[in-house]
From TrEMBL:
GO molecular function: thioredoxin-dependent peroxiredoxin activity
Family matches, as SUPFAM superfamilies: Thioredoxin-like
Enzyme Commission no: 1.11.1.24
Pfam family, any one: AhpC-TSA
Domain annotation Thioredoxin: ranges: 3-156
Catalytic activities: a hydroperoxide + [thioredoxin]-dithiol = an alcohol + [thioredoxin]-disulfide + H2O
Gene3D superfamilies, A to Z: Glutaredoxin (3.40.30.10)
Name of the protein this chain belongs to: thioredoxin-dependent peroxiredoxin
NCBIfam families in the record: PRK09437.1 (NF006960)
């Protein structure tokens, strides 16, 4: 399955760092940046999370929510959120089910080792729950500006 812009975003419910269930439907009526990332407290993932943190406050009056998803535990997410003062939820996709639904899970290679894991992908979801932007295997420091520009263009 391959997702394309205009498709209905795959529905999900996952536990947050606090243990609360967070579902895609919770964001109906809002724009949502849903980003998948490999691991808490790694250099690229920290750069990406802090980049979203830095644009989050300025966008609160624009009906925009941000949610990060990785395979990390709630405890790991709690520490990551506290350490970097992240104002948005991080969700636990422990078995990669939601990442697979978003074509964001599969074979990876690091230091010569092959394994299965979450890809660094981002999805812009419109208030009706449709995919408005898809950003695959992004660089952590470069794509946030593009996502925000696309949001501004579509939301206005």
């Amino acid at each position: 399955m391959s997702l394309t812009v205009g498709d209905r975003a795959p529905d999900f419910c996952l536990a947050s760092a606090t243990g609360d269930q967070v579902c895609l439907g919770d964001f109906r009526g809002q724009w949502l940046i849903l980003y998948f990332y490999p691991r808490d407290n790694t250099p690229g993932c920290t750069k990406e999370a802090c980049g979203y943190r830095d644009v989050y406050e300025a966008r609160q009056d624009q009906n925009l929510a941000i949610v990060g998803i990785s395979g990390d535990s709630a405890q790991s997410h709690q520490k990551f959120i506290q350490k970097y003062r992240l104002p948005f939820p991080l969700l636990c996709d422990l078995d990669g089910t939601v990442a697979r639904a978003y074509d964001s899970y599969g074979p990876k290679k690091f230091m010569g080792k092959e394994y299965e894991g979450i890809y660094r992908n981002t999805f812009l979801i419109d208030p009706q729950g449709n995919l408005a932007g898809i950003y695959l295997k992004v660089k952590p420091d470069a794509h946030i500006d593009q996502v925000m520009a696309d949001f501004q263009a579509q939301a206005s």
